[in-house]
Amino acid sequence: VGATLVTHPIDAVKVRLQLATKGNAAADSFSISRFLRMWPSLYRQEGTAAFLSGWRAGAIRAGSYGTARIGLCEPLQEAVGNKTVGALVSGV
Asked: Which of 65, 67, 86, 88 has CB atoms 3.0–4.6 Å from 76's, for a disulfide?
């Protein structure tokens, strides 16, 4: 869940770049300079909320997926009889 707080603003900027260049084939290629310029531009236009909108949903998703994977690991290991395969099947 903590990683979501770090990666969500990066994803928000990435999506804004994708939406801004939609339909413009020349601008579709990723550019680090465009990515870095987008941060202050987005902050000036929408403030901090632009980077954090939707983070709760991402945190809930990450928490529920992580809990399900960890919760399923031991039962799957016992059912399969092989700890490595059980862990791989549960996604841990």
From this structure: 86
